[in-house]
Design goal:
Blueprint: H1 2-6, E1 11-16, H2 19-28, E2 32-35, H3 37-43, H4 54-67, E3 72-75, H5 83-95, E4 100-104, H6 124-137, E5 142-147, H7 156-169, E6 173-176, H8 184-192, E7 199-201, H9 211-216, E8 221-224, H10 227-246, H11 259-265, H12 268-288
The structure holds sulfopyruvate (SPV) and magnesium ion.
Sulfopyruvate binds next to helix 3.
Length: about 290
């Protein structure tokens, strides 16, 4: 995780909610897996508004970490409560194999940044205390401080002021979030921020921005937070409608992944190989006792 953030190129993270989708991202060559709160709650059929509790988010994130070699950065919303929740969260996430946690400077319960509603910021002192606590109780876990000042309409000066405080509090990286359809304000933030921390962006709405541009502007990582979920949703919906319309699955077949693709992602060949290996060993052991 640290190598991804500190390498000269732009690291690319892909959002996931299931071990299967994390393996697809790994296969496609992404550098980091983003355990997305939006994806995890969407997959559970509930809003991204701290409806799911910390243990549910942790189970999902740990499942991703177990399934891939890549580092997993866990979206931990605003830390699931106050500083005590953050301390418990950091210890637990680190123990379960997460490479990093990201906490955002909003109130609990948070609301997804793209939903119109309460996007009020947490008081600066509260959040700075959470960041300091997180960095004091972790062993090696990367702590990302996510700035929501631009989302909440508090403006660039507030984002920069908070960035400086979070850096002094000990954050390992900053995430500057924006919901504009142009990358201008994250570019402006990157240019005006004079600190030393790597800066992460989430180019969901300003989707025309390229890796080359982000790299040139000095960003450390881009998180494509929800694209796998959105592509699978569209594909599933179209397939299901077609099956109902056609009265047969014949016409959808060519658009479907094969069962072999599924088996490969489940690591079925490796399982069978292991099984054959131990069956042979077992036979040898039994043979030797005769
Ligand atoms: C998520 O993927 O849950 C995020 C990114 O936090 S966003 O949805 O843009 O807030
Ligand atoms: Mg989130």
């Amino acid at each position: 995780m640290r190598a991804a953030l500190e390498s000269p190129g732009l690291a690319r993270a892909m959002g996931a909610h299931s071990p299967l989708s994390a393996r697809l991202a790994e296969e496609a060559g992404f550098d980091v897996i983003w355990s997305s709160g939006l994806e995890i709650s969407a997959a559970a059929g509930v809003p991204d508004a701290n409806i799911l509790a910390m243990p549910e988010c942790l189970e999902a994130a740990a499942g991703l970490a177990d399934a891939v070699e890549l580092p997993v950065l866990a979206d931990c919303d605003s830390g699931f409560g106050n500083v005590n929740n953050v301390i418990h969260m950091v210890r637990t996430y680190e123990r379960r194999g997460l490479a990093g946690v990201c906490i955002e400077d909003k109130q609990f319960p948070k609301l997804n940044s793209f939903i119109e509603g309460n996007q009020d910021l947490a008081p600066l002192d509260d959040f700075a205390g959470k960041i300091r606590a997180a960095t004091e109780v972790r062993e090696d876990l990367v702590v990302v401080a996510r700035l929501e000042a631009l989302i909440s309409g508090k403006g660039m000066d507030e984002a920069l002021r908070r960035a400086e405080v979070y850096e002094r509090a000990g954050a390992d990286a900053l995430l500057i979030h924006s919901k504009l359809t142009e990358p201008d304000e994250v570019f402006a933030f990157r240019a005006a921020y004079t600190g030393d921390l790597p800066v992460i962006v989430v180019p969901t709405t300003y989707n025309q921005v390229t890796v080359a541009e982000l790299q040139e502007r000095g960003f450390a990582m881009a998180i494509y937070a929800n694209h796998a979920l959105r592509s699978s949703l569209r594909a599933m919906r179209e397939t299901l409608v077609k099956i109902m319309q056609d009265g047969t699955t014949l016409h959808v077949e060519e658009d479907l992944a094969s069962l072999k693709e599924i088996f490969d992602l489940q690591r079925v060949p490796q399982m069978l190989e292991r099984q054959a290996h131990y069956e042979a060993l077992g036979r040898d052991l039994a043979e030797a006792a005769r």
